[in-house]
Amino acid sequence: MTADTTTRRVGVEPTAPDDTAPPTRKRRGDGRSALFYLAPSALVLVGVMGYPLYQLVQLSLYDYGQAQASGGAPLEFLGWGNYATLLGDGRFWTVLVQTCAFAGVCVLGSLAVGIGLAVLAGRVRTLPRMLLFLAALGAWATPAVAGSTVWLFLFDQDFGLVNEVLVGIGLHGFEGFSWTYDRYVAFGLVAGEVIWCSFPFVLVTMYAGIKAIPGEVLEAASLDGASTWRTAREVIMPMLRPLLVIATIQSIIWDFKIFTQIYVMTDGGGIAGQNLVLNVYAYQEAFAGSNYGLGSAIGVVMTILLLIITAIYLRAQRATGERT
Amino acid sequence: MKAWRPLAAATVAVLLTACGPPQVDRTGPQQDKRTGTLRVWLFDEANREPKETVVNKAVRQFEAAHADVTVDVRYIPVDSRSERFTGAFNDPSSAPDVAEFGNTDLASYVAADGFADLTGMLERWPAADDLSPSVLDTAKIDGKVHGVPWFTGIRALYYRTDVFTELGLEPPRTLDELVTTARRIRQARPDLYGISAGGKYHYAMMPFVWAAGGDIATRDNGSWTSALTGEAARRGVNTYASLISPGICPPAQCAGMTGTESVQAFAGGKAAMTIGGDFNRAAVDAGPVGDDYAVVPLPGYEAGSAAPAFAGGNLLGVMDSSDHSTLAREFIKVLAGKERQREMYEAMGNLPTFTDVQRRVAGDDPWIEPFIRSLQSGTRFVPATPAWSEIDAQEILPTMVQRIATGTDPKEATRRASEQLNAAFGD
């Protein structure tokens, strides 16, 4: 026991109940100072996250449209009514499945591209590495709306560079080919854009992680006769795991919440709404349709889903982490 | 120590149910000031100058007649109008006194308690007797007028005279002929769309439904029900959707086109026909098509009949929260008066809403004659219910057309759209 903890214990002694055993008292004292240190950020979080979340949940329990907001109609408490409407709507389930599949493809895509390029960046000379990073950071820095619009220009059916090149190399089927007409082609195009603007985060994170692995460890592995694959799987990957977890969770959260790219590139959800994802759907319900109650319910469902996915992923990671 | 748990649960329950989401309090005393600043919101235009000239004239006239009154005119972008009006309804202190708004937004704005009842004002305004009845109908909710029609917009059939002469075609006399003519044009000229009528252009689709004798929805005992599954309505929807086909306007290009894009395709020389409004004249004149086009009323299913046109247009209303309500009404009489409407037509091409002004305008300018003819032969309107904004925003009708155009069975598509309409009406 250090002098520091002793003095702290003395400091909290008078307020602690007498019948408590010393170890508990110490833990409680630690808890209190932890609370004290966390208080400022807790205050900010309650202000900027807690209150809006509280309002979101509250709105989702009412029939709350523009007429109710501006006082033109009385409020009506629906309880779970909005949720029942939402879960009973086949469209919601289609959109949910679409969102999960789309986010899954985007997460895997950006992880694969990001990790692949990070490994590549660790093995090439300075100049190509610098060019790679410049290109990646350029994509990262591009605002989502601008990026989506540029992609649309590139893939324009009449004047787009991509169609011109494809026709130029002899693929005449691409003459006037519309990249946003077929559901899966449109989703593929948007996924391409999303991966393009989100892989740099994975690249930078993983590159930093790879660089932070001490040379001695790798040297030891090769001295022990480990193959490249074995080194990658059993030395590098475990050391990268914390970073990989962060990159994956971030990607899941980002890609599940995709709005801009779908909204801009498929013109608000595609032909007959075939390319809707949850966030665009919520926007249409809440703001375009002034149905704030139902829109909030979608928001709450999305928040819960994201929390569940993240929790499952974290648990799975911890479990595998303990095994290896 | 465990006592806090039920306590916290109770607190949360109370918070969730007792307080309720925020609402604007409308119980405060209402003032009616006769001096000060009158705030006016008008829509911004691609080329605002001609509109501004007419408005400024009205402002000078009004300020000269009312001492100690200044009129503050703001131009708000049409695209973000919904956010602006929502903000104005939710925060009366930042709201204008007089505002211009689209007649399809009227029902939801009135439900939000946004605009005052002007029925009494119109009864005491002699000029109001000359307002076109079908246009005035678009300003009424439950028989009460909530806005003065400032101008109206009518759509008709634009066609390329050079293409029609080259192929020896006559302008179609029925909607079925419209389909065959459009197909023949694309056969002979594969570089052109037979007619550019996009999947998201529901204001072009509705006249087809009305011409077939159907309707979008019908009203019975105060509640609306979808009429899209009716035989007649389905015929109209089908005819329109058949225009979005590889032989006329390929779905890959046309299914996602909006009204503006449809007209742009025509103005850009990519289509032989389109359904365009009187307000699209400047855009078409400025494009490569130039003078090589003419306009006829959109035909109906019987030869010689015209499809009922959709009566679009903008209204001027007094905000319910206004503390200058008398002055606001006086200003509307000036700005929406006969003289200014005529000037607005000359400046912007906006069709007047007074029948006598319409006749004078048509006499002076033969170009506008087909539109006036459509207008005076009877117009129709979207269901006058607050649900319309929601239906519009959720793109229920465009989705229906797009589904049929991309191969869904029309019965299934109209049934699904009907369900969605009824759900929106039911809210």
From TrEMBL, chain A:
GO process annotations (BP): transmembrane transport
UniProt xrefs under Pfam families: BPD_transp_1
InterPro entries reported for this sequence: MetI-like (IPR000515), MetI-like_sf (IPR035906), UgpAE/MalFG_permease (IPR050809)
Biased composition (Basic and acidic residues): 1-11
Record's compositionally biased regions (Low complexity): 14-23
Membrane topology recorded in Swiss-Prot or TrEMBL: Multi-pass membrane protein
This protein's UniProt keywords: Cell membrane, Membrane, Transmembrane, Transmembrane helix, Transport
Signal peptide (from-to): none
Residue span of region Disordered: 1-28
Broad class of where this protein is predominantly found: membrane
A single cellular component GO annotation: plasma membrane
Positions of the ABC transmembrane type-1 domain: 96-313
Compartments, as annotated in UniProt: Cell membrane
TM region positions: 34-54, 92-119, 131-154, 184-204, 243-264, 292-314
Family: Belongs to the binding-protein-dependent transport system permease family.
Protein name: N,N'-diacetylchitobiose transport system permease protein
Species, as recorded: Halosaccharopolyspora lacisalsi
From TrEMBL, chain B:
Regions of compositional bias (Basic and acidic residues) in chain numbering: 409-418
Annotated region (Disordered), positions in chain: 407-427
One Pfam family per UniProt: SBP_bac_8
SUPFAM superfamilies from the UniProt entry: Periplasmic binding protein-like II
Any one of the GO CC terms: ATP-binding cassette (ABC) transporter complex, substrate-binding subunit-containing
InterPro entries (alphabetical): SBP (IPR006059)
Key words, A-Z: Signal, Transport
Gene3D superfamilies named among the record's database cross-references: Periplasmic binding protein-like II
A GO biological process held by the record: maltose transport
PROSITE patterns named in the record: PROKAR_LIPOPROTEIN
A GO molecular function held by the record: maltose binding
Highest taxon of source: Bacteria
Family note: Belongs to the bacterial solute-binding protein 1 family.
Name of the protein: N,N'-diacetylchitobiose transport system substrate-binding protein
